[in-house]
Structures are given as structure tokens and as C-alpha cells.
Design a protein that fits this description.
With 103 residues, the protein is mainly beta. It has a domain of 69 residues. It contains one helix and five strands; from the N terminus they run βββββα. The chain is extended.
């Protein structure tokens, strides 16, 4: 496992995460946001800096949330219209009880 410092541009945070391999620029990774939800992030930059100990080079990542990933859908019009369940019966119907599979 490789411990990498991830600098998150979206949330202006830094944290150290363990990876099996160093992601490349342009790849997407899944990270947990501060609100606890998982989201996709794009790797913007990868660089290496010499560690304070020995002849070791430590990788660093610069990431930003993938466009469209953090957007929320806002209802048009009145908020009560978004909670209208009058057409709910047309959304999904059950076809009755299924018979057991016979071999």
C-alpha cells in the first residue's frame, strides 16, 4: 500500500489515504466527502516530493470533484409540487405473486 497525500480543491482539505497504485492525471477516484457521501473526483495533478527521511519520494495528488457529481436536482415551481404523489401508482406496478422456479 502506498500512502498518498490528497489535496482536495473542492473542499479545501488535505488528507493521507492509502492506495494500491498511484492514480494518473485524468483518472477518476472515489472519495468520501465531508458530508459522508461518496463522490467521484478527477485527478488534476500528481507530483513527488522527497521525504524528510531517507531517499524516499512521496506522491501527492491534487483532485477536484467531477463536474456534475455534486449537483443537486432542484424542483421547478413550488416545493409542494415536488412532493406530489398523485401519479405514484403509475410509477411501478407489481405483477402479482411470482410462482417458484421449477427445475
Amino acid at each position: 500500500m502506498i500512502e498518498i497525500e490528497v489535496q482536495n480543491e473542492t473542499h479545501q482539505s488535505q488528507e493521507r489515504i492509502r492506495f494500491a497504485a498511484v492514480p494518473r492525471i485524468g483518472e477518476g477516484i472515489r472519495l468520501r466527502a465531508p458530508d459522508g457521501m461518496w463522490a467521484s473526483y478527477d485527478v488534476l495533478d500528481v507530483w513527488y516530493q522527497k521525504a524528510e527521511f531517507g531517499d524516499v519520494w512521496m506522491p501527492y495528488l491534487h483532485v477536484r470533484i467531477t463536474p456534475g457529481e455534486g449537483e443537486t436536482i432542484t424542483p421547478l415551481g413550488d416545493e409542494d409540487e415536488a412532493h406530489d404523489l398523485s401519479g405514484e401508482h403509475e410509477f411501478a406496478t407489481l405483477g402479482g405473486e411470482h410462482e417458484p422456479f421449477k427445475i
